[in-house]
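S.,

Sequence below, as promised.
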Amino acid sequence: SSDVCSSDLGSVTISTSTIPDAVKNERYQTSLTADGEVSSWSILEGSSLPSGLNINRSSGVISGTPTVSGSYQFTIKATGNSGSDQKTFDLYIEESGGGSGGGGGGGCNSGIGFLSLVLSVIIIFARRSINK
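The prediction came back faster than expected:
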């Protein structure tokens, strides 16, 4: 069994399959993992992380506060002593301030519209309770 272990030491395979979505202007952090010993993590040339995010070259942690929203694709490279692997990831960054307001609005004001609706319902029920 020691032969199996020693034959696996040189190969590096990125084992993270997907990464979680992010929210614009909110702190983000996710860790990439690999099978094999990784000496450095990097973004493949010609590829880039969304604005506000960085990768820790020694730990494979992607972190920061994204300053943009939308769908992004980038390729990560894990390098070991005798090999490397690369994998392309998709990252969706939601607009901050609440999701899509009832299928239409979206953006920053949709949270306010939802809050107004909730408050209206509460007021209606409160008035009904008082009038009984």
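DSSP finds two helices and nine strands in the chain.

Coffee later?
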